[in-house]
Amino acid sequence: MLRTGDVLFAAKQRLEAIRLILEVTSCHLDDWRLSLAGAMTILTHSSRYDIAETLLRNALRHQPEHIPIQAYLAHVRMAGGDIAGGKALFSGMVRRYPAQQAMVCTYMSVSLLAFGFPMESLQILLPCLESGYVDASILSNIGCSLEHLNRSADSFSWYEQALALDPTRALIRFGYACALLKAGRLREGWPRFFDRELTVGDRGAWYLALPRLRPGDEVAGRRIILFQEQGLGDTIQFIRFVPDLLAKGAEVTILVPRTLVPLLARSYPGATVREIDGFGREDDYAYAAAIPDLPYIAGVMSMHDIPAPVSYLRADPGDVARFAALLPERRPRVGLVWAGEQRVRSDDALVDRRRSTTLAALGTAVTPVDATLVSLQFGGLRSEIAGWTGQALCDPMGAVRDMADTAAIMANLDLVISVDTSPVHLAGAVGCPVWMISREDACWRWGDSGERSAWYPGMRLFRARERSLAPVLQEVGAALRIWVKTWRPS
Question: What is the structure's pLDDT at 4?
Answer without folding.
Answer: 55
